[in-house]
Design brief:
The chain has 7 helices and 6 strands; from the N terminus they run H-E-H-H-E-H-E-H-E-H-E-H-E. The strands form 2 sheets. The chain has a 4-stranded parallel sheet with strand order 5-4-3-6, sandwiched between helices. A two-stranded parallel ribbon has the order 1-2. Helices cover 39% and strands 15% of the residues. The chain is globular. With 164 residues, it is an alpha/beta fold.
């Protein structure tokens, strides 16, 4: 598991610097991230730009019940995560929550996306015999928005050690 530890932290810091040094422009996700880089003086060394991450809701038609039927989740409270399933997301947070709620028959965790942690997480889910969580491949933006509007609880998970 990639938590804590000076050796692992230093490895990722070196790789992060290597990526920054190779980039022409570094895209950050918010003005707060831009401020963080500036406070570290990195705005003097690197070309930084805020890349806003949003979409419009106009024009989306969301058929009620389509995904609940497709995934067999009628009469469930669906905890939905959609996006990258990688180390930075610390998806173990969600798996721990699913494990803690394994005896709650109405709770179900649906993870949709791609990433480096999928095979490992599928192994954890199988080893712990979790029947209340599944991982499905990424979908396009329109389908994602339809799923998001249909399910009950949206989940966000990031590794607590991330700064930007």
């Amino acid at each position: 598991m990639l938590r804590g530890g000076g050796i692992i932290h230093n490895f990722f810091k070196r790789k992060e610097k290597q990526n920054y040094d190779a980039a022409n422009i570094i895209g950050v996700q918010s003005p707060a991230n831009l401020q963080y880089f500036s406070e570290l003086g990195l705005d003097k060394k690197y070309n930084l730009e805020v890349l806003y991450n949003w979409t419009t809701l106009a024009g989306y038609h969301t058929p009620n019940g389509k995904y609940r039927n497709q995934f067999g989740l009628n009469n469930k409270v669906v905890f939905f995560y959609g996006g990258n399933i990688g180390v930075s997301q610390d998806m173990d947070n969600i798996i721990h929550l699913a494990k803690a709620m394994r005896n709650e028959p109405s709770a179900y965790f649906l993870l949709v996306g791609e990433g480096s942690e999928i095979l490992r997480l599928q192994g954890v889910i199988a080893a712990q015999r979790l029947k209340n969580v599944s991982i499905h491949p990424a979908v396009d933006q329109q389908e994602y928005m339809a799923m998001l509007s249909e399910f009950d609880v949206g989940l966000i998970s990031l590794d607590r050690n991330l700064k930007t």
